[in-house]
Each structure stands twice: as structure tokens, then as C-alpha cells.
């Protein structure tokens, strides 16, 4: 018995409608799954950023504690020891061996006090807290410059775009890059450049030293720690760093930080 044409048409339409419904349902389900996965990924990324920001805030708090202990405790004890030694030195005969030894000891105490103050200042740059990033970097440049290497700072106009919450992060990054260049590159000139490009701040640290193999350094747990720290700090504010380096030539490291990102910048507060 043959199926009436109308019944066949109705069955075909019903199957098409069912197929369309299944396709729509599958597409909707996949869309919901993709949206859910994206939401979870964003939540995980946000959580990672918050953890990194909390870690760096903890590091800064620990730096402050150590700097205060150095200044208030060790620095004070060294100063008292120096005063006591001065009194002892004055009581000794001017040309006696003991007075000469006391003088040498006092010089050692002076050098130790200077180093304690330097370490304390490196741990917590009070100039940064009191006068801002530009003044702190100018102080860093002055301290890093010596008879072997000259450090310059360029792009003063760009500092007006730096949010206060980003100043500590940028200072630590520049401090790390300059310290590495002074210690390892053998450079005679280091230039720190700040400039704005569209909606981001760019910081470039250039030197004319011997360069290095970026892959080799990153694999080295000790030397690569500073570079990984820079990348981790920048990931909190969705910034990134580019290493234009190679053995046998100078280095160029470029840091890029978005300026308009209040949600992420708030993580640093």
C-alpha cells in the first residue's frame, strides 16, 4: 500500500524541522559551552593576576620591613659603635699603634654604615614614595653612573602619564634591567627611555655591552630569575616585554604597559 503524497510531504517536513531543531540545539549548546569555558578562563586569569599582585605587594611589604630593620636596628647599633670608638680613639695617644688601629676600624664602620644605608635605600626607594617615579629614576641613574659606565634617562615628558599604582612596578623593572646591564654586560653606556605610543607607555633600556643569549639566560635558574620576575610583574597589568638581544652586541629591552586599564591597575594598589 503506497503512502499518500501528502503524508510523505508532512513526514519530510517534520524530519526537516526536527533536523533544524537538532542543529540549532547543538549550536546553542556549543555556544553555551564556549561561553562557559571563556568565563572560566577569564576567572582563572583574573585569579592568577590577583595572586601575582598579592605576591608583589607582599614582597614590597617585606622589603619595607627589612629596610626598617636595617635602618632602625643595625644602622643604629653601628652608629653607637662608631661613637664609642670615636671616644676610645680620642683617649689614645695620637701616635700609638692602637690609635691607628682604631682609626682603621672606624673607617670600616663608616663603609659598613654606607652599605647598610645603600641596601636600605635599594630595598625601599624613599625618593619614589616622596617625590615620584622621575625623581627616583634620576637618583637610580646617579647611583649607577661611575667611571666605567654612564647611565642616561630620556623622555621626561612621558612621566605625567604614569599612574601612581604603576610607579613601583616600573621602578622595579628598570632597576632590574639597569642592575643586570651594569653587572653583566660590560657596557660603557646605558640609556633609559620613556615614551608614549598611542594608549601605552613604553620603556626601553639600551646598552652597548656584550649582549647575551636570551634562551640560555632564561634556562639558568639564577640569572633568569630577574627576567621572569619582570614578565610576571607585567602580566598583572597585561603588559609585556621584548628582548632584542644577542651575544656580541648591545641589548635593547622594551617594556610596554597599557595606560588605560583601571581594573588591572587597581590590583597593584
TrEMBL record:
Question: For this protein, what is any one GO molecular function term?
Answer: phosphorelay sensor kinase activity
- The answer to whether UniProt assigns keyword Membrane to this entry is yes
Keyword check for tRNA processing, yes or no.
Answer: no
InterPro entries reported for this sequence:
HATPase_C_sf, HATPase_dom, His_kinase_dom, Sensor_HK_TwoCompSys, Sig_transdc_His_kin_sub3_dim/P
Residue stretches spanning the membrane? 7-29
Q: Which PANTHER family match?
A: NITRATE/NITRITE SENSOR PROTEIN NARX-RELATED
Protein name in UniProt: Sensor histidine kinase
Amino acid at each position: 500500500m503506497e503512502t499518500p503524497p501528502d503524508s510523505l510531504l508532512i513526514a519530510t517536513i517534520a524530519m526537516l524541522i526536527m533536523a533544524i531543531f537538532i542543529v540549532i540545539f547543538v549550536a546553542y549548546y556549543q555556544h553555551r559551552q564556549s561561553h562557559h569555558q571563556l568565563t572560566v578562563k577569564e576567572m582563572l586569569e583574573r585569579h592568577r593576576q590577583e595572586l601575582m599582585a598579592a605576591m608583589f605587594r607582599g614582597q614590597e611589604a617585606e622589603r619595607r620591613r627589612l629596610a626598617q630593620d636595617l635602618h632602625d636596628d643595625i644602622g643604629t647599633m653601628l652608629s653607637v659603635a662608631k661613637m664609642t670608638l670615636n671616644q676610645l680613639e680620642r683617649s689614645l695617644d695620637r701616635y700609638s699603634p692602637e690609635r691607628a688601629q682604631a682609626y682603621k676600624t672606624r673607617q670600616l664602620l663608616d663603609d659598613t654604615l654606607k652599605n647598610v644605608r645603600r641596601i636600605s635605600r635599594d630595598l625601599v626607594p624613599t625618593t619614589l614614595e616622596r617625590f615620584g617615579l622621575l625623581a627616583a629614576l634620576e637618583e637610580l641613574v646617579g647611583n649607577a653612573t661611575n667611571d666605567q659606565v654612564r647611565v642616561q634617562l630620556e623622555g621626561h615628558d612621558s612621566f605625567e602619564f604614569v599612574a601612581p599604582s604603576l610607579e613601583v612596578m616600573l621602578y622595579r623593572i628598570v632597576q632590574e634591567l639597569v642592575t643586570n646591564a651594569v653587572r653583566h654586560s660590560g657596557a660603557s653606556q646605558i640609556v633609559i627611555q620613556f615614551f608614549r605610543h598611542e594608549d601605552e607607555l613604553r620603556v626601553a633600556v639600551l646598552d652597548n655591552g656584550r649582549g647575551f643569549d636570551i634562551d640560555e639566560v632564561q634556562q639558568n635558574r639564577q640569572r633568569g630569575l630577574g627576567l621572569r620576575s619582570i614578565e610576571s610583574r607585567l602580566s598583572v597589568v597585561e603588559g609585556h616585554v621584548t628582548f632584542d638581544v644577542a651575544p656580541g652586541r648591545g641589548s635593547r629591552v622594551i617594556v610596554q604597559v597599557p595606560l588605560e586599564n583601571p581594573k588591572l591597575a587597581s590590583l597593584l594598589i
